[in-house]
Design brief:
The structure holds 2 protein chains of 2 kinds.
Chain A: H1 2-29, H2 39-52, H3 55-58, H4 68-81, H5 83-86, H6 95-98, H7 110-113, H8 117-126, H9 141-152, H10 158-168
Helix pairs in contact in A: 4-9, 4-10, 8-9
Chain B: H1 2-21, E1 32-41, E2 44-49, E3 52-57, E4 63-66, E5 69-70, E6 81-88, E7 94-102
Chain lengths: 178, 117
């Protein structure tokens, strides 16, 4: 009985400290979307997102081949709909992304590239809650083609970036800080 | 009054979002590319443009038109002026055509062609 009381008191203490910490963190940082999520928050958010993704979606494989035409069609689609936030090169260096909380990741890096094809498809279709990523819907080819293009982003060429710029006028990503 | 304005704003935003979501990427025809046909082959043709010669590939899905009327692929001959809508491949040298518009009046009897209605 005594042990139970001690455990309950300890749990209550931990809860009070956590609540006080959360209160301090929130009031100290405000609700600006221009700050970066801290690493713990980002880690937990990604874990929760993965847990919330159905395993059938995670294990889904891309039915399309990475042909030059499929990648090119997705490139034009990406330029038209996605690049305004993600940038033509997927780096996320855009004025809109600079003000998003959390910001879209650099899609060329492991945060995106380590996802399965099915996870990327699921995110394109359903979006991600509490972020700027909308769910675009659709079941079919266009989303799978976008997955092919996202896989292609780490090796995108200058010519491809120029073709995208012709479509959307978005300048090539630079090293500038937003 | 304020409530009505709020509802109007919500409906307008919803409508815009629905229009955005409804956009079908497969409808993209691509930017128009104008030029003169310099060579033809079974799978496409070469097109001389302001930016150089491009290889234009056609597929079973490519549509060919003159004055918004369908024509046949074999009506495209050397010297023809065409506008091509399609997808430029990543090399920047080849376009897979979704639509080819022939310019100018039809040359009846040429290639045994003519309008296909």
């Amino acid at each position: 009985m005594y042990r139970l009381k001690i455990t309950a008191l300890l749990a209550l203490g931990v809860l009070i400290v956590a609540a006080a910490g959360a209160y301090w963190y929130t009031t100290a940082h405000g609700f600006s979307a221009r700050t970066e999520p801290n690493p713990i928050e980002a880690f937990l958010a990604r874990k929760v997102r993965r847990l919330a993704t159905p395993s059938s979606a995670i294990n889904a494989s891309n039915p399309l081949e990475a042909t030059p035409l499929n990648i090119a069609e997705a490139r034009d689609h990406f330029a038209d709909h996605c690049a305004v936030c993600h940038g033509n090169d997927g780096s996320g260096r855009t004025p809109i992304n600079a003000g998003l909380y959390p910001p879209a990741p650099d899609m060329r890096g492991p945060v995106t590239q380590d996802l399965t094809d099915g996870e990327i498809f699921y995110i394109i279709k359903n979006g991600i809650r509490f972020t700027g990523m909308p769910g675009w819907g659709g079941e079919g080819e266009e989303n799978w083609k976008l997955v092919l293009f996202i896989r292609h982003l780490p090796k995108i060429t200058e010519t491809e970036l120029e073709l995208m710029q012709e479509i959307n006028g978005i300048e090539l990503a630079s090293g500038e800080e937003h | 009054m304020q409530r009505r304005r709020f509802l109007g704003t919500i409906l307008a935003a919803g409508g815009s979002a629905a229009a955005l979501m409804a956009h079908d990427a497969s409808k993209h025809k691509g930017k128009p590319i104008k030029g003169e046909v310099t060579a033809t082959g079974p799978a496409g043709f070469d097109l001389k443009t302001d930016k150089g010669v491009l290889k234009i590939s056609v597929t079973a899905k490519t549509r060919f038109e003159r004055d918004e009327e369908p024509v046949r692929f074999d009506e495209i001959s050397e010297g023809a002026h065409v506008t091509v809508f399609g997808t430029m491949l990543g090399d920047g040298k080849e376009v897979v055509a979704k639509e080819v518009n022939l310019q100018g009046a039809a040359e009846h009897g040429h290639h045994g062609g003519g309008h296909k209605h």
